[in-house]
Design goal:
MFS_Trehalose_Transporter; transmembrane helix; mainly alpha
Amino acid sequence: MYKLKIYLEESQKNKARIRDLKKSYNLKPFSMSMGLFFFQQFVGIGAVLFNMTLIFQSVGFDLSETMSTIIVGVVQVLALVPSVILMDITGRKILLIGSAIFMIFSEGALGLYFYFADHNPSVAENVSWLPLASLIIYILAFNVGFGPIPWLMAGELFSPEIKDLCISIATMFNWIFCFVVTVTFEPLQDLLHDYGVYWMYGGICILSLLFSIFIVFETKGKTLSEINAHFGSPSGAERNEDKTVSISAIT
């Protein structure tokens, strides 16, 4: 018990502070994680989900809020299975890239439909299936990549002493991003029209694709020491060894 008390006291002493984020080997993975959470929300998922009933009604599908929720739930469940299987086969980065690509095309197609609905209704009538197909592909793509992976990588990128702090801050900003996207959806519709809003989200998806290609570090199959070393931690391996020794001493 005495040794355990000492270990817990040492853990409290080693607990990270905000100033520790200024260290480059903490700031780099933290910035990457924040970027993932930013794109997770600003690709428009909150606006799409919270306004699903309005979207269906605007294209002629008179679905109740309950039915819209059921459709979204089924699609999300269907996306969960391949996501879990592929995450440790293809890696996180590939899934993020694929997710971004499919979201670009689905939101581009959704915007195209609404553009035709405003400027050439006869064409829109001929492709009345396009909005529903685009939404299904969009939700599938999001839930395979940008839905779960930012949370997964947040648990992989940080050393134990700073993980709680980083994830707490990232979670707070994630909900702020969600709130901003949701409350700005209707004002943006008035300003840019429906097609403009979806093309704007599609443009952000392009940025998320570039971010995934050039910034995201693949964590699949890598140990915490290797991840720390990639970001320049001076003692990634030593930190893990010290923890192992401390735990062994207690037991």
